[in-house]
Amino acid sequence: MKIVIVGAGFTGIQLAKLLINEKNxxxxxxxxxxxxxxxxxxxxxxxxxxxxxxIDTLEDAGxxxxxxxxxxxxxDEVNMITCSLVDAVYxxxxxxxxxxxxxxYVNTAEAERKHSESFSGKHRPLYGIDYMIHPDVEAAEAIxxxxxxxxxxxxxxxxxxxxxxxxxxxxxxxxxxxxxxKEVRSKTDFPFxxxxxxxxxxxxxxxxxxxxxxxxxxxxxVSKSDFHKLSELCGxxxxxxxxxxxxxxxxxxxxxxxxILSNRKSKKFRTIWTKIKEKQTQDYVIIDSDPDRxxxxxxxxxxxxxxxxxxxxxxxxxxxxxxxxxxxxCATHNHELNMVLAAYLESLGVKQSISLVTSAPFAGIAEKxxxxxxxxxxxSVVDSIMSHLRGKAVKEIHTVTSGELEIVxxxxxxxxxxxGKELKEISDPGNYLVxxxxxxxxxxxxxxxxxxxxxxxxxxxxxxxxxNSKKLLSYFAGTIx
Length: 481
Prior knowledge:
Radius of gyration: 23 Å
Shape: globular
Distance between the termini: 8 Å
Strand order of the largest sheet: 3-2-1-4-5-6
Helix content: 25-40%
């Protein structure tokens, strides 16, 4: 594929790295010479110092023969206008824009929902943007998923499946400590799959002979109903979450609060509020140091207790009883502060914490500080973009363990080289693992087994090394275009 990226900031460079590693042709455009010099030293691709919202520049970059345009400049308006400009001349190119203005995002989604019939068929999307990516929405969804699953670690869900991939640390004294994977199965009476093992910062795809040791992080695929039984076997006893404090009433905090408070009666939201109260409650507290944001939050969430104060003030926290809470969500715009606050609150007595961080390297730092779950904002954006660039057969992509491994959901096509085969015939331990399988016409995934047969129309979820994902997708999906 050929991809033109406009904007050589952190996200643009990270996206370019992944695409280059997969042998894609990348052109990176930015009008800042210093930023481009930095990018040129890091990347093996064509770089152009110019305004990306100029059709002459884009044509010089080869947009006419490109498969996709990704706009990641700091300006929402530039990103949107650039996509619109290209759509008018080259409508068949995939156009992706990062948009940080929530009003643009919400209004566009609402317009397309309200006029869904008009935007079906051959009608062009609004502004010519095929996929509009909002970082705050992606991050808020990740935080909400972590809360829903008890903040035991990073959780990845698959559509409406009952199965989830959870990151769990093996504790000292765990029944799994010292066993190889093929022995671990004898300890349980429910199905699960170990997708990856992380030891001393190095991730690998396991085999049946892989030894599990205390301190290892396991990526475990298991049903939501069996998750807590498995976490106990790993040496972690889940405690019921009844009281939550959210620090930061900005956009991400607001979206998280909307999701939590609107789903508090849902059976799916199983760890929160066992006794529902209709009036204002102490169970959910929002803290922000800004009076205006606090006032807006108070009006938006009358069922929550909203406090205007300094979350780093121990006296304030003690007076409000925050130190006895079960979970703290730190979602301010200051990501370094989030890490420090999360660790600080746990030191004062808060049982678990979730922190919004900038990127995967910061997530590693947060883990060393004792933060239970870290949500890297920039990585969630890159994952979303990569999913859209894979083509129609590829439904979703997620990077795990600091980007070393990639989880890909794809559809088996008639061109697939593995069509009609059983998984045991095509297994390649250490290179990839088929985790989930869904037959055509069936809504829910099941854990894949050796005798699972793959036919066109089926969907599979794979985990592999990031640099191998493009080749593997070509093998399974038959095409990546």
